[in-house]
Amino acid sequence: LSATFSLRPGEGHSANSAFIVEVVFSAVLALVFLGVTSQRQPHPYHGLAVGSVVTAAGFAIGGLSGCALNPALALGVLGSHWAATGRGTEFLHLYLLAPLLGGVVAALLHRCFLARGDARR
After folding, report:
1. Which of 3, 8, 32, 61 is most deeply packed, by most CB within 10 A?
2. 3-state secondary structure the chain
């Protein structure tokens, strides 16, 4: 690879702020996904809802954190950057833990507030 990039907080932003927005937007994405998949009847616009959240997250936090939202994506990007350059894993913990914590937050919110009438719960 002649060109590679790594995930890191944007210029002028701290790792803490990147962590917070990654947790929040990962939770929103997981909550939308849980909401559309817990419905008994699939709807043709469910994919649009999930895609819209990913697009909005990219615009909102792309410059602040890189908008990983997914530990698998983060491992792929950081791993390929490390393989090509031998560096770039200093924020690996941020991009692995933040989406996982966001998923836990979304699961708790869904269970407490949205899944009350869901028979599959």
Report:
1. 61
2. CCCCCCCCCCCCCCHHHHHHHHHHHHHHHHHHHHHHHCCCCCCCCHHHHHHHHHHHHHHHHHHHHCCCCCHHHHHHHHHHHHHHHCCCCCCHHHHHHHHHHHHHHHHHHHHHHHCCCCCCC
